[in-house]
Amino acid sequence: MRLKPSVVLRLYSLCGILIQVAATKSKAKGSQGQFPLTQNVTVIEGETATLTCRVDQNDNTSLQWSNPAQQTLYFDDKKALRDNRIELLRASWHELTIRVTDVSLSDEGQYTCSLFTMPVKTSKAFLTVLGVPETPQISGFSSPVMEGERMELTCKTSGSKPAADIRWFKNDKEVKDVQYLKEEDANRKTFTVSSTMNFKADRSDDGVVIRCRVDHESLNTTPQIAMQVLEVHYIPSVNIIPSTSWPEEGQSITLICESKGKPLPDPVLWTKDGGELPDPERMFVNGRELNINFLNKTDNGTYRCEAENSIGQNSAEYVLIIHDVSNILLPTTVIPSLTTATVTTTVALTSTVPSATAINTRDPNALAGQTTTGPDHAVIGGIVAVVVFVTLCSIILLGRYLARHKGTYLTNEAKGAEDAPDADTAIINAEGSQVNAEEKKEYFI
Prior knowledge:
mainly beta, five-stranded mixed β-sheet, 14% helix
């Protein structure tokens, strides 16, 4: 009858024990106080486990390693179990060390080191095998997601031993409000764990990186991570920004329409008071900007910017009020006094021209279409100054003309005419005296 290999190994072990007991009977007394020393071992599935049994003092007593099924692995330096994964590292009277490569979950259990004294002394070492969790997967994600839609994402991993831990992150911020579930696998050694995160999609979530992180002692300091980037679609948001906060007549203004949405909104539509832009020559659209040149009061009104994408439409309004041009202070004209005089009479002609100053104070509360009297005062003052200036110039020119045309007058009667005895003599004396007489003249200066 042919025996099974396992039975032969058991018989071989028993024979070895009997032989060893017989050989060491005389030395048993000196080994009574000795016990083998072992340590528990933890190893990750697929890696290598090393089991060591030591005896400080040993009088040539054999050492043996047995597996959780009580099968002898090594008896001193003799291999008893045919398993290519099990190797002998060191064998002496003081130490027996073996190595198990490519450890599996089935290798986990209690291993026994035996010292064959009388009686036999043993020490236990528990081999723990860690099950490595599989790479996590995120499910429940659909792309793109509409704003306001409820999302339920689930992260799942299997094969962990003990059960792994799952954590959720939005960008770098951890999400705490999640659900956790642990289930035992069919082999009744490992676990499948899952975690679910619920949230309402918002436009701020667009581009956010969702991370599911699996932490487990078998992963050391490098956790396993599954990642998903969110894409959220939403209707445009619209805002109008003016290039100036105080538009005045004659100036230009640019209204910028800021529109953000996903998908990107189509080119914006500009309207005024619910209709088309009334003056295309002065009002033109460049992309999302509305430019208005040479502003006037007719440009007052409500301007609307509309933006639309495949999700929906939105708009914004801006009320434009054109203000009067800010007036500047006109300089005062000072005209010097002019004097006209003759030899006999002096006449002083002095003209004082009041300063024409137009001041217009800007009224921020002025309503559209209202006008102020500031510009009219400035015009009237300017006209008065011009009229006064022209009048004075005319007087000066007239004086210069009269000065150039001087008159000659006799101021005394001819001497000798008074003493003439008759008229003929008086005339003769008068004519003679007129020839040599000094003439007194008056001049207009």
